[in-house]
Each structure stands twice: as C-alpha cells, then as structure tokens.
Amino acid sequence: MRDSYREELDDINDCLVAMANSVGSAMSTATTALLDADVALADLVIAGDEEIDATRESIEQRCFTVLARQQPVAGDLRVITTAMRIVSDLERMGDLAEHIAKVARMRFPDNAVPQDVRPAFLEAGQVAELLITKAATVIAKRDLDAARELETDDDAMDKLHRGLFRQLLSEDWPHGIETAIDITLLGRYYERFADHAVSVARRVVYLVTGERYRA
Amino acid sequence: MRDSYREELDDINDCLVAMANSVGSAMSTATTALLDADVALADLVIAGDEEIDATRESIEQRCFTVLARQQPVAGDLRVITTAMRIVSDLERMGDLAEHIAKVARMRFPDNAVPQDVRPAFLEAGQVAELLITKAATVIAKRDLDAARELETDDDAMDKLHRGLFRQLLSEDWPHGIETAIDITLLGRYYERFADHAVSVARRVVYLVTGERYRA
Predict the structure, then answer these.
(1) Is residue B73's pLDDT more than 50?
(2) Do A180 and B177 touch (CB under 8 A)?
(3) Chain A CB contacts of B78 below 8 Å
(4) Which residues lie closer than 8 Å to B117 by C-beta, 6 or more apart?
(5) What is the sign of the dihedral through the CA atoms of B56, B57, B61 and B64?
(6) Which of A77, A88, A177 sits opposite B88 (nearest CB)?
(7) Which single residue of A93, A103, B107, B162 could bond B112 by disulfide (Cβ 3.0 to 4.6 Å)?
(8) How far apart are CA A155 and CA A158, in angstroms?
(9) pLDDT (average), residues A65-88
(10) Domain boundaries in chain A?
(11) What class does CATH assign to B5-209?
C-alpha cells in the first residue's frame, strides 16, 4: 500500500495508461505481422497477451483493495469503478490484437491479406493505432477534446469496414471463400477494437462530466 | 433505498437473473427470426435491446449506490463488483442477439441461412438457450455444478462453430460470398454469446470459491 491514497489512485491511472500503450503496441505489431506474413511477430503478440491479461488482474485487484480499505465515496468511487471498466475494454482490445496475429499465423507462409485488400488493412491498422493512442491520452489527461475526436476517428473505421464489404461483394472477388472468411473476421476484429477505444473514451467523459454519450 | 441492505443485495441479484432471462428470450427470438426469415420477430429483438441496455444502467446505478452508501467490505464488496461485471456480459449478449436479428432483417424476405446450414444454426440456437438458462441458474443459486456444465456446453458450441467452417470451406459451397460472410459473422455471434455465458459462470465461481478458472 502506498503512503497516500491519492497517490494510489494516480498510480492506478498510470497503470491504465501503460496498459493502453501495451495494447497499442500489440495491435501495431499484429497489423505488421498480418501484412508482412511475419510469424515471429505474430508469436510475439500471441505470447504478449498473457502479460496484458496479468496487468488486467493486477489493476482489478488494486481497485478492489482501494474499495475495501479506503471505502471511497462520490468522485473517487467513480474513478475506481471507471478504472475497473476501462481495464476490461483494454484487455478485450488485447485479445482482438491476438486474434489478428492468429490469423496471420494460421495462413503463414501465405499472406492472409491479398494484395488488393492490403491498403484497407494498412489504413485500418493506422486508425486503430490512432484510436488507442488517443484513448491513452484521454485516460492520462482526461482530455475531452481527444475523446470527441475519437468518435470521428471511429467513423473512419466504420467507413473502411463498409468498403471492405463492398470489395468482398464485388462481382469479381477472385480470392475464394477461405480468404473472404478471413477478411470478414479481420474486419470485425478491427471494428470491435475501435468500438472498445470509443467505449474507453466515453467512460472517461462520463467520469468527468456525468453525462453519457448517446450515439 | 430498501429497508435492509441485505434485501437490496438480494434484489440486485434477482434483477440480474431477470436480465439473464430477458437476454435468453432475445436470443431465442433472434434465432427463430433468423431461421424463419421473420422480420416482425427480428424487429422485436432489435427494439427490445434498448430495454436490456436500460436494465444494465439501472443495475449498475444500484450497485454504485450500494458502494457509495453502504461501503461494503470483503464478501459483500465482491458480490457488488461481480454483479457489475456480470451485467456487462449480459448486456453484450443482448447486443449479439440483436446482431443476429439484424442479419435476418437485412436479408428479408430472403432467408439469410441456406437450407443445408440450417441444422447448424438450429443447434447453435439451442446451445445458446441452454447456456443462458444455466447462466441464470448459476447467478440465482450460485450453483457451481451448473457452472461446470456450462464449460462443457460451450465446447459443443465450439464444435458447431468448427463444423460451420468446414461446411463453408467444402469444395462445393454453392451459396456464394455474401452468404458465406453472413454465415461467418452469425457463427461468430453465437460463439461470442457462448463465451460471455461462460464468463458469467466463471465470475460466480470466483465469487464463491475465490478461485479463477484457468482454461
């Protein structure tokens, strides 16, 4: 237990930011593994997910200990319950990065993503990185402007996702069913990753303003 | 606020059970909507998801109020934090039922599921119902035997899911890419629904025994 209760709350928040950064690295590495059919990178992401899961447990346990020992009320209580929810989103985002790495691994030495779909996933990877980076900023600084930007960035991911379906459904999709399935699931993983980043931002907005975002 | 704090905890648990039952109805209706291409049933599920979301907010708020006013420690504190997590799983399961209903609605008046894939989704729907029914029992009675059974039932869902992929990837898949995409996503929704049911059961096991299940 740290000397000061306030320091413990700050420290938990720092851990959330560090976890968000780890998740961002995992996602960025997973995208590279996918686009380069790099099985060593894919394995790094898959092995690294255990650490992200362990971080989740550690943060949850610390939140629980603060609840039990300090019995925070009002604002501080909301800080802790928000942290417990954010940590779930972040862990799930780590799982999604792992799912992407697993698709890369499953198709190795082939590339799961055909050349003509590559630009869409390159961009999805970049949007995902942007989203998790901003989510980390939102957590670190309770930055409501960044939280608002995240909503717009998520629209970009949705647009990419729709474009992917158009490509899959074009008359001349030449890559067969197996690749179509991979692309469908990969698209879903990136989209869900983005949804969770938005969820993190909304939780912080609710913490700061008391207002829930309504889409 | 109820007279007795203990009654309030019991009442929150009853609400969780009722929510699990609502989610079960939604999933059951969504499966029927999907298999019968019944757009009226699909709309029921889609409209009903708002109520499930509202229940989530209401239960979360009640948990928060108990934390703030009663400052529970030890076992009671764990009951509340577990309820807050279970409610997230249940809400997400409601979303997945809604996703299934939306696929049925999107393909109406066509049937999203071709005749030869129908048995797999009929069974997936039955397994999903079984899982959420047992999850409700686990919440209601802290029934650890039912929790263990859930793990096995989830294996059945995984097996169904693998069978679906085999069917999609057979040489003679005659239904084209669009249907393959629908089936891929539908399979994923049922699988995730099952995962969340397992997660609910594991949270209750952890609450009762203090031991985390390791897959």
Answers:
(1) yes
(2) yes
(3) 64
(4) B164, B167, B183
(5) positive
(6) A88
(7) B107
(8) 5
(9) 93
(10) 5-209
(11) mainly alpha
